[in-house]
């Protein structure tokens, strides 16, 4: 039986189940206010109109609208006018950010044959948007440095650290070479970063059809997947160090801001890097000799994959316009009726690499429909208790520029007033996926039991539960994943310590349009969410999240899920250290045994292999003590009891909750990247978008920096202690009711 059939059978079995969440009390609400909230949400659902999302996407994707383009400003003005018409106070904030665009792009195979890369995406039949090549940015990687290099080529698989370890085992060096790496496997900016660390002088990226092309399904325009000419654009700034404008590090890129010289900017690549299609990659890969690539490295091109180096020799020339461009943030505010100085912030970005139907407009039109419906409720007398701010961020694609500059500009006010940030980027159809702070996991789980999946008629939680069951996992509640980076929640969550969500639907809308010319309205309508019913469902999930945070009597944070999650993270890093110690002992024992054999053979020229540094026994007591205290306190808090507090006590406890996530931060940030101050969640230094939990400790162990690992354990213990202190303060208020 296929997985798809299994899921369908489980869903059919679930169709008759009641929607239990509708009968349950709401976290953070008294019985009376919960009834009012249910009425508000029922009225809200009635107002959600999927055809609005369709109409707005058609307009917003009609032309390419990258940062600084004429249509980008038209999209901004369109959204601002809509928000105003729905009753919001609207401000458009402008930040002038560094945005390099390509001036020269040249890639040639010189030996043993010759080939000049096309570096273009031709139009396809049936999609008029793909004819707008004169308005679109050509394929390139933003924040690659200029460069003119010629060298032998080496195939490095996905170009992650483990791949270079495989090359070293084979005695292959990339020193002075140009590398070609597949997309996937990690965030794109990691690939030139690691290549430069290994001595390469240039980097080429391509999407292999095994990962993102005809191996996966029919290609565009016949199907959804990447055709041979599609190229993934994207920034390669060193986001794991810090997002935002590289000329104004740590402060807003306002018109009068002091800017660094480009030569002083951090985060640019150290070598030139260029993305290409698999049409352009195939002649380069065919020209490679040397060892046959390991089986796990081989893709789906009709050829034998070799590693090199050479005899393929390539010339790569890149030159960019290093200019400032305007990033426009649309901020629409609906002032709260009771707590105007407590803000729930809901947003997504509006800029795209080209048309951006899926990324980001599918998520942006859901934000707009939510705002329209909430605005109508307010006009009808159902104004939220707390202030809601709807945000449409500019310049996200080059490096989270618009949101980061806004957060850095308004940091003090946000620390004082922000309750949470809710993000939706690209979305399609299928299963609800969400990440966020685990203090809000139980709260969000209630929401997933209240929203109906438009295809099956069961709740979005029940559909997700069925999918997990097919994979062999039984879930009792909706799981939030840990947040890494890659979208606009990052500056709120990891820089200021504001609780955050990122959510969307997917799993049944895969395709190869990401960051290509082919991410168009026509593609989205055919292959993603044809009737925008899942866009409407996303508006209902995210809208409930916004409304319940805005209307709750007591903010719906809780501790048991967080305590359990932190314990799991702690167990993982302690096991990581133990596994590293055992592995090192095994490897060193083999080194000693081999050295003994070599030394005993007079025919061998003896050269003793080097042993690895032994892994010391780290003192995890500070971490264990913090985790133990949090676990002991977690069950002492009763969300239900908190709703019975007096008005003054509720206000006091809400202020403590608003500052709760910030207790997991330290002002000096993580080692070598002080912008990231959260000590539980951060993007990985070598994974990019991918999350590293307890990052200071985990990455120090992974990099075998054990002195630093101990320092980070001690600091993490202090962070967890501060978090436990805040828990104790909150619990103390509830206990005195």
Overview of the molecule:
The protein is α/β, with parallel strands linked by helices. It folds into 3 domains: 3-98 and 325-551, 3-Layer(aba) Sandwich (Aminopeptidase); 101-322, Glucose Oxidase, domain 1; 560-636 and 660-735, Transferrin receptor-like, dimerisation domain (Transcription Elongation Factor S-II, Chain A), CATH 1.20.930. 39% of the residues lie in helices and 16% in strands. The protein has helices spanning 3-14, 31-47, 50-60, 70-85, 161-169, 190-197, 209-212, 278-286, 357-379, 401-409, 411-417, 441-448, 460-470, 489-496, 521-527, 533-551, 560-600, 621-634, 639-642, 647-658, 695-702, 706-735, and strands at 89-98, 101-111, 115-116, 141-142, 147-155, 178-182, 202-206, 234-235, 273-276, 313-321, 324-334, 339-349, 386-393, 418-423, 430-436, 500-507, 681-683, 691-693. It has a 7-stranded mixed sheet, sandwiched between helices. Helix 1 crosses helix 13, helix 2 packs antiparallel against helix 16 (533-551) and helix 21 (695-702) packs antiparallel against helix 22. The longest helix is centred in the last third of the chain and has 41 residues, at 560-600. The termini are far apart.
């Amino acid at each position: 039986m296929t997985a798809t059939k299994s899921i369908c059978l489980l869903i059919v079995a679930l169709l008759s189940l009641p929607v239990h969440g509708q009968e349950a009390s709401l976290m953070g609400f008294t019985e009376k206010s919960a009834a009012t909230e249910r009425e508000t949400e029922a009225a809200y659902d009635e107002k959600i109109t999927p055809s609005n999302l369709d109409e707005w996407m058609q307009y917003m994707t009609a032309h390419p609208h990258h940062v600084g383009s004429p249509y980008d400003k038209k999209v901004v003005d369109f959204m601002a006018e809509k928000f105003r018409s729905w009753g919001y106070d609207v401000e458009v904030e402008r930040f002038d950010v560094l945005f390099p665009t390509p001036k020269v792009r040249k890639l040639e195979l010189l030996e043993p044959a010759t080939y000049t890369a096309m570096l273009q995406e031709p139009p396809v039949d049936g999609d008029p948007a793909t004819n707008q090549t004169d308005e679109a940015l050509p394929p390139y990687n933003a924040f690659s440095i200029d460069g003119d290099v010629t060298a032998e080529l080496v195939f490095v698989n996905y170009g992650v650290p483990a791949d270079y370890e495989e090359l070293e085992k084979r005695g292959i060096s990339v020193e002075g070479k140009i590398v070609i790496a597949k997309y996937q496997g990690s965030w794109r900016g990691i690939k030139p970063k690691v290549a430069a660390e290994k001595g390469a002088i240039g980097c080429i990226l391509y999407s292999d059809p095994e990962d993102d092309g005809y191996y996966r399904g029919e290609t565009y325009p016949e199907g959804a997947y990447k055709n041979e000419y599609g190229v993934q654009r994207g920034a390669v700034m060193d986001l794991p160090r810090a997002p935002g404008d590289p000329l104004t590090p740590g402060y807003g890129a306002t018109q009068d801001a002091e800017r660094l010289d480009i030569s002083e900017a951090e985060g640019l690549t150290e070598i030139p890097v260029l993305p290409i299609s698999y049409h352009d990659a195939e002649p380069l890969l065919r020209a490679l000799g040397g060892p046959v690539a390991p089986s796990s490295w081989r893709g789906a091109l009709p050829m034998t994959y070799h590693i090199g180096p050479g005899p393929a020799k390539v010339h790569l020339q890149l030159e960019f316009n290093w200019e400032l461009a305007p990033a426009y943030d649309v901020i629409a505010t609906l002032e709260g009726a009771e707590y105007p100085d407590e803000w729930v912030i809901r947003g997504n970005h509006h800029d795209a690499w080209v048309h951006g139907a899926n990324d980001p407009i599918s998520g942006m039109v859901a934000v707009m429909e939510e705002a329209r419906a909430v605005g109508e409720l307010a006009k009808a007398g159902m104004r939220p208790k707390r202030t809601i701010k709807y945000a449409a961020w500019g310049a996200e694609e080059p490096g989270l520029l618009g949101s980061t500059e806004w957060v850095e500009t308004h940091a003090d006010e946000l620390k004082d007033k922000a309750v949470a940030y809710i993000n939706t980027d690209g979305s399609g159809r299928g299963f609800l996926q969400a990440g966020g702070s685990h203090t809000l996991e139980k709260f969000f789980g209630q929401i997933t039991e209240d929203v109906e999946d438009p295809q099956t008629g069961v709740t979005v939680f029940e559909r997700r539960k069925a999918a997990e069951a097919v994979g062999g996992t039984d879930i009792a509640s909706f799981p939030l994943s840990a947040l890494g980076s890659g979208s606009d929640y990052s500056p709120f969550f990891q820089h200021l310590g504001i609780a955050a969500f990122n959510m969307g639907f997917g799993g049944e809308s895969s395709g190869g349009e990401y960051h290509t010319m082919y991410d168009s309205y026509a593609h989205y309508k055919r292959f993603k969410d044809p009737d925008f019913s899942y866009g409407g469902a996303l508006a209902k999930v995210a809208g409930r999240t916004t409304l319940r945070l805005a209307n709750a009597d007591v903010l719906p944070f809780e501790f048991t899920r967080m305590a359990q999650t932190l314990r799991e993270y702690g167990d993982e890093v302690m096991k990581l250290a133990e596994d590293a110690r055992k592995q090192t002992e095994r490897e060193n024992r083999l080194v000693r045994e081999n050295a003994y054999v070599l030394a005993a053979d007079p025919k061998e020229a003896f050269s003793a292999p080097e042993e690895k540094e032994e892994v010391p026994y780290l003192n995890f007591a500070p971490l264990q003590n913090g985790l133990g205290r949090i676990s002991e306190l977690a069950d002492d808090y009763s969300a239900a009891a908190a709703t019975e507090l007096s008005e003054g006590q509720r206000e006091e406890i809400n202020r403590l909750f608003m500052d709760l996530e910030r207790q997991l931060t330290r002002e000096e940030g993580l080692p070598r990247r002080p912008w990231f101050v959260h000590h539980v969640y951060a993007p990985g230094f070598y994974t990019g978008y991918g999350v590293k939990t307890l990052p200071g400790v985990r990455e120090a162990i992974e990099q075998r920096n054990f002195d630093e690992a101990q320092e980070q354990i001690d600091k993490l213990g202090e962070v967890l202690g501060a978090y436990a202190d805040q828990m104790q303060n909150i619990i103390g208020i509830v206990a005195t009711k």
